[in-house]
Amino acid sequence: MTFAEKLKSIRKQAGMSQKTNYLKKYIISSYILVWALIIFVAGSASLVFHAPPVIMWIVRNLIAWSPTYLLLIGWKHFRPYETRTAFVKRCFSGKVKPFLLLLSFALTLGISVLSLFLYSIMMGKPMLSYINLGTTALPLSIFLSLTSGPTGEELGWRGFMREEFNKKHGFLRSSVFQGLVWCFWHTLLWMVDSEFTDWRAIPYVISNIVVITAITVLMNIFLERYNNLIYSVLLHFGFNILYVFLDADIGFFVILTVLYLVITPIAVFVRNKTIVRLLEKEQ
Fold first, then answer.
1. Phi, psi angles (nearest 5°) of residue 228
2. How confident is the model at residue 16 (pLDDT cuts 50, 70, 90)?
3. Is residue 20's pLDDT more than 80?
């Protein structure tokens, strides 16, 4: 019996309405919560209390954890037919293979580094000229980057949301829907936390839509084979870490978008061929 069939059986035994859209409730609630936190918490910290950069970074990290807060605190509203413990155990139940962990981190980091390399060639400047270590100590920067979205968002997006979308749609369609929800969850941040406020805002938003959706597809390829959120955490971290130090113009994001449009379909093709081979072996 598949996980979706088990959930259907549990719902039936509990006498629950099959019409209840728990996913919709979660998505709407997550948007409302994050926008409220950005406006009232981050806004107050910045505009009223004039918090220094490190404090603002900590505030942003706390906000990044909102999908997890929402899911665990409001659990009975989103998954009333299962315990939190059972859900969390399942999210980390897959095999952990050191090589694949390294690959998951290196994949997204490598695409970003390649984008920066190509951008530096295009601009005729060294790659390191686009890296700004800032005033925060390097170990602290890495720690704050890891404890932001990579560890704060995955239980909600690739844990709960992925399972709910997978019950209704096939792999690719489910991945695209997940990516779009995750992407537009950042909408308010594009307006208040981006330096691209002129015409560059258009390619920047397009880049976010394409890249975040593509990363979701790549995450789900790993999670489909090995259902353990550690893989998506490292993919997320590999993507985020460079941007802590990056100081590049919109051309970098254009190149990044093109690379993801090339690499992601190749990854999906390889995934499909692998599934076909596995099915042939079982026959």
1. -145, 120
2. very low
3. no
Percentage of the chain exceeding pLDDT 70: 93
Let me know the angle formed at the C-alpha of 24 by 43 and 14, rounded to the nearest 5 degrees: 130
Domain count, the chain: 1
- Tell me the pTM: 0.90
For 12-26, 96-110, 209-223, which range has the lowest pLDDT when averaged over its residues?
12-26
Domain that holds residue 259: 3-282
Burial per residue of 240-270, b for 16 or more beta-carbon CB atoms within 10 angstroms, e otherwise: bbbebbeebebebbbbbbebbeebbeebbee
Q: pLDDT band for position 262 (50/70/90)?
A: very high
